[in-house]
Amino acid sequence: MDVVSDSGSESGADSDKRGPAVGPRAPGFATILAALQDMEPADMELVLSRALLKRVDTKFVLSVDQAAGLLASLNDDFSVVLSAGQRIAHYLTRYHDTEDLALYNMHRRGVRPRLKFRVRRYVERDLVYCELKRKDVYGRTSKVRSVCDDTNARIGDDEAEALRKFSAVDPENLAPDVDIDFWRVTLVGRESNERITLDFGYAAAIGDRSVSFPGAVIAELKQPRFQPRSPGMLAFRALHVRPQRLSKYCVAIASLREDARPNRFKPVLRTLSRYAHD
Q1: pLDDT grade, residue 126 (50/70/90)?
Q2: How far apart are CA 174 and CA 7, in angstroms?
Q3: How many CB atoms within 10 Å of residue 177?
Q4: How many Å apart are CA 19 and CA 11, to the nearest integer?
C-alpha cells in the first residue's frame, strides 16, 4: 500500500484535478488491453439485459497477470462493454459521508441495510450520476441514481428520499469526503445473466493524503442471485482465489482517515498491499 502526503497539493473541488494521477500508462493498462483484443464487443441489447441494478456481488483481488488470464478464459462466454468505443473506461468518483462517518461506520460494523452515496463521472461518455447504493439484509445490492450536472453535485431528491427511508442519516449532513479514481473493464455474459467488472489503477485522495494500489485488480462478479457454477464463478474458481469483503470507499477511508478505526478492513488491506507495486 502506497500512502503519501503532499503538503503542496491542492484539495480543490474540481474532481479532474485531484489525487494521484492514473491514465493509459497506469500499471497493467497495456497488459489488460491486449488481453481484451480478441473479445467480442457487446451489443446494446445485451448490455441492457445485463443491467443487474438489483444483484448479489462477489468480489476478488487479482494481480494484473491473473486478470489477463481470466479475460482469456472468458472469451467464449462473455462480451466486453464498450464505453464511447473504448474497451477500458475511466471512472472518477467522489464519495460523500457525514462528519462522523455514519455511512462508513455502517460498513465497519457490518450493519444491514447499509448505504453509500457517491457522485461518479463516466469520463469517456461525459456523464455524471448521483448514486445511492444499498445492501439489504439478504446481501442484495440495489441502486438509486439520477443524472447530475457535474462532480460537485450534492445528493438529489430521489437519493435523499431513499437515504431517509433506509437509515437515520440526514441527507443535509452529507458532504464530500474522498475522491477515488480507477479504470474499469466491464464484461457481460452472452448466455448467463451475469456481469464482471475489473477495476485497476486504484488511487484515492483526501486533501493532501493519498493511497494507491498500482498492481491490484479489484474484480466483481454481479449476479441476480448467487450461482456457484455459473461461467463467471467457475472462471474465478479456476484461479484459486478466495472472495473478499471489499468496498473501494471503505478501503480509502480506512487508509486515509485517522479516526476510521480500520481493524475490520485490515485483512483486505493486507491483500491489496501484496499488489502495491507494479
Answers
A1: very high
A2: 26
A3: 22
A4: 9
Lowest-confidence range among 138-142, 183-187, 260-264? 138-142
Q: Which three cell numbers stand for residue 259?
A: 479516526
For 174, counting Cβ atoms within 10 Å of its Cβ (0-12 exposed, 13-18 middle, 19+ buried), the class is: buried
- 3-class DSSP string for the chain: CEEEECCCCCCCCCHHHCCCCCCCCCCCHHHHHHHHCCCCECCHHHHHHCCCCCEEEEEEEEEHHHHHHHHHHCCCCEEECCECCECCEEEEEEEEECCCCHHHHHHHCCCCCEEEEEEEEECCCCEEEEEEEEECCCCEEEEEEEECCCCCCCCCHHHHHHHHHHCCCCHHHCEEEEEEEEEEEEEEECCCCCEEEEEEEEEEEECCEEEEEEEEEEEEEEECCCCCCCHHHHHHHHCCCCCECCCHHHHHHHHHCCCCCCHHHHHHHHHHHCCCCC
pTM above 0.70, yes or no: yes
Write phi, then psi, for 54 (nearest 5 degrees).
-120, 120
Query: What integer pLDDT is reported at residue 278 of this predicted model?
Result: 55
All structural domains of the chain: 2-273 (2.40.320.10)
Looking up cell 464463478 gives 233
Q: Once rounded to an integer, what is the mean pLDDT over residues 29-58?
A: 93
Phi, psi of 73 (to 5 degrees): -75, -15
- Answer whether 248's CB lies under 8 Å from 202's CB: yes
